[in-house]
């Protein structure tokens, strides 16, 4: 939501800035054009005034009467200048001082500014007249530099004011966006809580525009939970349906073959054990793949101590049990799956430990293969027992493999644990414990 609001704000700011620049520059250009037109009319009047200052004597010879000129033409570098051409004669204003005024090649106002005295930018007008039967060229010019400076300052002020106005508008717009997108952020948070098993459905007290979407999500959630429940019940029924025929084969058929054909009896027992293991593994994977429901999340703070108490009562051994666990909320993993995983691992630890068992639960950040930091939920079980040699650790993860044939069981515990952890996108890591025995690490992706 935040990035969408930021993108909207940036796009709006840029579009308004460009629109403001174009409009303001266009308005200033139009005003400058109007100002040039006004000055052009004024230059025409000035040329007419200079022409009127040419007086003829009784012999018809023309001379310039400076007393009839504007005082600015007599003040040096005043910004107003003229040149009069009459045959070989040339009159120029006193204001030019010792500078020359370049005469335009064509009559009329010239849009291109000409550099004049003191680096002034001059707007020039050339007029062609006739007086007393004699052709006369009058060139007048006016300094355009103050107007250029004024327009440049105005352009800067307008741009700064527009940017300030846009910043204020952007702040107001961001506030309105955050306020308008707040229902979406709340819906996103509730969806995360729904996925994490912290709530059963989304609150339908939302804005009118979001209400149909929330209602459909709640319907989908209820439908998904119903499908999951039906799938779990079907898997349970299938498991019970398969256990009965297998039990009959193991109890009756194998007993009859034990005396008559010991070799076939051994082969049948082995195959039945593998079938039972395969069925158990397949049902476990299917159940894990069904996912977690909101009503049955795994809560480490409540479930792990309860599991430890149950195992202590079952094994009845004088062991030093040490639990290290930071306060954690309910996790989006199925409680039954996690209890089965931890139960297998802890059962092995209780079985092989000499005196000490240590359980640690914490969340850490790990660097993944794509070089991104991601959080991991790690459940670590350690004991001070004999441990497992490094070159034999992979063997115990294979189904039916055991390192000690004297202990009860079928060698399926760690293989089932590995399958369940992998189904959740995690991994099972076997290592050497600081206590001297085996260290079993269960690494799960931590979405909360």
* Cα end-to-end separation: 18 Å
Tell me the strand order in the biggest sheet. Answer: 4-3-7-6-5
Rg (CA only): 48 Å
Largest beta-sheet details? 5 strands, antiparallel
Structural class, by secondary structure, is alpha+beta
What is the percentage of strand-forming residues? 15-25%
Mean pLDDT: 78
**Tally of helical runs:** 8
> How would you spell out the order of helices and strands?
HEEEEEEEHHHEHEEHEEHHEE
- Identify the quaternary structure here: single chain
Overall strand count: 14
Uncertain stretches: 399-412
What share of the residues lie within helices?
Answer: 40-55%
User: Tell me, what's the shape?
Assistant: rod-shaped
Describe the structure.
By secondary structure, this protein is of the alpha+beta class. The chain is 51% helix and 21% strand. It is built from 8 helices and 14 strands. The protein has helices at residues 2-52, 145-195, 211-260, 262-289, 300-315, 335-352, 393-396, 413-423; strands spanning 54-56, 62-64, 80-86, 89-92, 108-115, 121-131, 134-143, 297-298, 320-325, 331-334, 356-367, 373-383, 427-432, 438-445. The strands form 4 sheets. Strands 4-3-7-6-5 form a 5-stranded antiparallel sheet. The chain has a 5-stranded mixed sheet with strand order 9-11-12-14-13. Strands 1-2 form a two-stranded antiparallel sheet. Strand 3 (80-86) and strand 4 (89-92) form a beta hairpin. The longest helix is centred in the N-terminal third of the chain and has 51 residues, at 2-52. It is rod-shaped, with a radius of gyration of 48 Å.
